Amino acid sequence: MKPAPKAVCLLSGGLDSSTCLAVARREGFECYALTLDYGQRHRQEIEAARRVAAALGAAGHLVVRVDLAAFGGSALTADIAVPKNRPRAEIGRTIPVTYVPARNTVFLACALAWAETLSASDIFIGVNALDYSGYPDCRPEYIRAFEHLANLGTKAGVEGGMRIHIRAPLLAMSKAEIVKLALELGVDPAWTHSCYDPDPQGRPCGACEACLLRRKGFEEAGVPDPLEARRESS
To answer: Which of 13, 6, 55, 12 is nearest to 32 (CA)?
Structure first.
């Protein structure tokens, strides 16, 4: 029997990246999950990533430390307040202070390095360009550009032994569609973590952009969010 092709899946522990891992698994890939500990204030997502990787049967899971907090410049890595209760209509219009400079570029570069050593031609990333916060590194043109770079700057790409594909299966999906797909693929939303500013017990604040977008998705999908129920019961 021909062995399953390998893929590196970036896994933050949020709903989108968890669903992306499940998509890669459904497509028949042997999945290697990569989580970046980049100095984020919402560190509960790292434990969520461990839960998801184990539950979805990742062939391997690495948590790699890359200290983007050393550079600051973001409410997720520096002493800058996380915006709360922004009107939904304003989310995505401008690049918010929760944008982490070059984050997805660093993430994809790390995934590319692991993919080369694994001889994995596919890298999955759960970016979304429809219901998202306006980050420039979540756009389709960015994904295309990084794929081009990956094939220019790797031994496999230059020697022609393997072409790297950057896969973003959730790119054009709404949050509601992602919620429905997650449930269809057996992803339990209770495993995941989305909040940028959780309380000391790890419960979501319910007011940051990540919480508002997640709530929008579950409301439009017509299903309850177990993390919202947990927050309301506190």
So the answer is: 6
